[in-house]
Design a protein that fits this description.
This protein is of the alpha/beta class and 303 residues long. It folds into 2 domains: 218 residues, P-loop containing nucleotide triphosphate hydrolases (Rossmann fold, 3-Layer(aba) Sandwich); 75 residues, Alpha-Beta Plaits, CATH 3.30.70. The chain has 10 helices and 14 strands. The strands form 3 sheets. A 6-stranded mixed β-sheet has the order 6-7-8-3-9-10, sandwiched between helices. It has a 4-stranded antiparallel β-sheet with strand order 2-1-4-5. Helix 2 packs across helix 3 and helix 2 runs parallel beside helix 4. The chain is elongated and about 80 Å long. Bound molecules: adenosine-5'-triphosphate (ATP). The site of adenosine-5'-triphosphate has 11 residues, from strand 1 and helix 1. Keywords: ATP-binding, Nucleotide-binding, Transport.
Length: 303
């Protein structure tokens, strides 16, 4: 669906040229959710703007369905984008007026935009807010309208910049559900977020960009497995004896209290040695810490 080939972009700052996006390659398949992550200034927004045709790359190209969008501009119509959340919308207009307006910009007939706009707003649970001005809606509802506006012309690729930023728990859960639902209809989604838990929950694949370069890319679950440390939290029924405690401390254990500690190993099998050592103190619980994108991210951006 989307292929970004060797895209490079230079900007000028203080009379010096610097590379904001450096030889970037990425691709997204139909229905796939790709989380594009990176610290502030890494080059995410610039990349998204290049994909959306808002910024011109100095090198490389963007292909949609195999066609270069620089020479086949009509393929940009396959893209819907929510780049600034609710700031994309006209606040004094109602959701349906916004949708008709954005549909019109994409060449839709007014009646078609009306009909599909109402369907979209209903699908997003906004059927009772169709005639309320956007400024009177909650932040979460405004975000839903912004996504509807990006979907009005039935794009095949949706670009979402920080889709859950500033939303409360319930609104962000709802937006996440909707993102998954949109992807299930075959729309590819490229999302950027600093909320790594959101990326972990939604993304089929993840790319981490730093200094304009992709430093890690892969299937989310595979990356998580790769970065899962063999870190266990062990809780026993009785106080750990002084001698065992000393041994565990030497092995790098961190005690939460006299009967619970955290310990990491190079090899998973080392936990059996610890279980044997603790005997006959009954083991109440052993939990392996799950890897998280936050750990992966920290490692990738601090090396
Ligand atoms: N129009 C511009 N002119 C000059 N420099 C720019 C321009 N747009 C972006 N930059 C610079 O390019 C670099 C990449 O910026 P970009 O906005 O793509 O980063 P980002 O990863 O989206 O960051 P954030 O997470 O803060 O949104 C930054 O150093 C930024 O200051």
């Amino acid at each position: 669906m989307l292929k970004v080939n060797n895209v490079t972009k230079f900007f000028h700052k203080n009379n010096k040229s610097f590379c904001a996006v450096d030889s970037l390659d990425l691709h997204i398949s139909p229905g796939e959710i790709y989380a594009f992550l990176g610290p502030n200034g890494a080059g995410k927004t610039t990349t998204i703007k290049i994909i959306a045709g808002l910024v011109q790359a100095d090198k490389g190209n963007v292909l949609i369905n195999g066609q270069d969008t620089a020479t086949h501009k009509k393929h940009l119509n396959e893209i819907g984008a929510v780049l600034e959340g609710n700031r994309n919308l006209y606040w004094r207009m109602t959701p349906i007026e916004n949708l008709c307006y954005f549909g019109g910009l994409k060449g839709m007939r007014s009646k078609e935009a009306q009909t599909y706009g109402r369907q979209l707003l209903t699908r997003f649970g906004l059927e009772n807010k169709i005639e309320t001005t956007v400024q009177q809606l909650s932040r979460g509802m405004q975000q839903k309208v912004a996504i509807c506006a990006a979907l009005i012309h039935k794009p095949k690729l949706l670009l979402l910049d920080e889709p859950t930023l500033g939303l409360d728990f319930e609104a962000s859960e709802k937006i996440k559900e909707l993102i998954l639902e949109i992807a299930r209809t075959g729309v590819s989604i490229l999302l950027t977020t600093h909320q790594l838990d959101v990326a972990q929950e939604l993304a089929d694949r993840v790319g981490i960009i730093r200094g304009g370069k992709l430093v890690l890319e892969g299937i989310t679950n595979e990356i998580l497995q790769q970065y899962t440390k063999n870190e266990y939290t062990v809780t026993v029924g009785n106080t750990v004896s002084a001698e065992t405690k000393q041994f565990l401390l030497e092995k790098g254990a961190v005690f939460h209290n006299d009967s619970s500690f955290k310990i990491s190993f190079k090899q998973k099998t080392e936990i059996y040695e610890i279980i044997a050592l603790l005997h006959p103190n009954p083991i109440i619980n052993i939990a392996l810490a799950e890897g998280s994108l936050t750990d992966v991210f920290k490692e990738m951006i601090t090396v």
